[in-house]
């Protein structure tokens, strides 16, 4: 069942964070849905209510243009039929103004993100307000971003600029946006930190105090870049030197301070890369894409279950379903 991110945030606020997972293909979609329902062995396995979680499925501009956006939309519609127990939002990740309008007009997305964070503050407000006004007319909710993360997202190279709490409050008031992605020390990609760097909880706490009560905040660039998956990639011929991510132990403390959505993209790519490298290293005679795909779907669903456990969203699905009635 497709819902809005606003529906999910109301239940999660201050208690746990919703996992927002980027997808690009069939195998990721199947693994994602199975993992969020606690399914790990066979497609016909019953849902494990103790592990099932609401989630957000994210489509980036890169994913939409990889082949044709309608392929991904069709796959998600099919997954909604195959997995009727699932409760999730469909979200455009890091959209331009034109991409947001295209998704709003499509009638498929329940949420869009307008990312004008690279613009000056006043320009960011202007662009975001236009998107909010158009989305409101269609019942679609909007996420925006204030401040800048490091790393690369699509065609935008970010230089770190932490979100100013006072500006966050002003931005929300002037745009009417439904949630706000804040820069508190995370970074896009697999190379987020060096040494013992981590999230700026002092900045996050000030932002929560400055914005309206129970206003949903979002953390981008929040993959944990697990060392075991990096090692598996490197042992199978990869060269991911010094890759590092967000400590998973920081997810729930962030959720307690108003972060209701945590974006995870890189981790899914690492699982995909490790599984496929290992498969064709160990079976060089194999040329069939399906055996590796089956292993990946199983591994990814298990990883989603793990991720939801550290986000605190595991076991929340039934309560969310009741809250929507």
Topology:
Blueprint (H helix, E strand, L loop, with lengths): L4 H8 L5 E5 L3 H11 L18 E6 H6 L2 H14 L5 E8 L1 H10 L4 E4 L6 H16 L4 E6 L4 E3 L2 E3 L6 H11 L3 E4 L18 H10 L6 E3 L7 H9 L15 H6 L2 E6 L1 H17 L6 H23 L5 H7 L2
Parallel strand pairs: 1-2, 1-10, 2-3, 3-4, 4-5, 5-8, 8-9, 9-10
Antiparallel strand pairs: 6-7
**Residue ranges: pLDDT <50 for 5 or more in a row?**
none
The largest pleated sheet is described as: 8 strands, parallel, barrel
What order do the SSEs take from the amino end to the carboxyl end, as H and E? HEHEHHEHEHEEEHEHEHHEHHH
The termini sit apart by 12 Å
What is the overall number of helices? 13
Using only C-alpha atoms, the radius of gyration works out to 19 Å
Q: Total number of β-strand segments?
A: 10
Beta-strand portion reads 5-15%
The main sheet orders its strands as 1-2-3-4-5-8-9-10
Whole-number mean pLDDT: 90
* Fraction in helix: 40-55%
Shape from CA axes?
Answer: globular
Classification by helices and strands = alpha/beta
